[in-house]
Amino acid sequence: DVKVTQSSRYLVKRTGEKVFLECVQDMDHENMFWYRQDPGLGLRLIYFSYDVKMKEKGDIPEGYSVSREKKERFSLILESASTNQTSMYLCASSLRVRYNEQFFGPGTRLTVL
Amino acid sequence: GQQVMQIPQYQHVQEGEDFTTYCNSSTTLSNIQWYKQRPGGHPVFLIQLVKSGEVKKQKRLTFQFGEAKKNSSLHITATQTTDVGTYFCAEAAGNKLTFGGGTRVLVKP
Fold this sequence. Notes:
The structure holds two protein chains of two kinds.
Chain A: E1 4-6, E2 10-13, E3 19-25, E4 31-38, E5 42-49, E6 56-57, E7 65-70, E8 73-78, E9 87-94, E10 103-104, E11 108-112
Parallel strand pairs in A: 2-11
Antiparallel strand pairs in A: 1-3, 3-8, 4-5, 4-9, 5-6, 7-8, 9-10, 9-11
Chain B: E1 5-7, E2 10-14, E3 19-24, E4 32-37, E5 44-49, E6 55-58, E7 61-65, E8 71-76, E9 85-93, E10 96-99, E11 103-108
Parallel strand pairs in B: 2-11
Antiparallel strand pairs in B: 1-3, 3-8, 4-5, 4-9, 6-7, 7-8, 9-10, 9-11
């Protein structure tokens, strides 16, 4: 079974702090994704990566950056956390083939005070 | 960009009844994937539809892709409490998914 793990289930940070969210997958998937999920808005793509050191902006990249130094690990960075970044953050991975399904991690609920 | 709209946003269903949730697009979809997210859980892939008019079944769940490939539906028969959750449709384009807003299903026992 594919396993996608995220470093924290719950995280509380203060405005202005730098925040790191880590994601690790164990199935040698090329693609990795970061989404945020807010009520009524579904899942919105922040960034994705299709290979090591490669990244592309998603629909809402402002205020975020990412890092992919190893194939299995994809990090989301909030350079200066703000209250409007309070959300559920979901990591996912998939094989780099056409129309392939994504496997999601358990999510990190981030609260920025 | 491409938008995928889901209706209804909420669905209250009596246990044992049937219901349908819909996924619509103003442009032709290349494919549709459906995911289920249980309360407190993460999205889990259910199925993918690619062909025009395609119908696939998983036990009490029936998934359909419209003839014009602009809409899709998920029909659940004889709803059970285990069906509680949010159902998302999504279009895969390249390596990315574009998700609809989801239908949150609540089951009344």
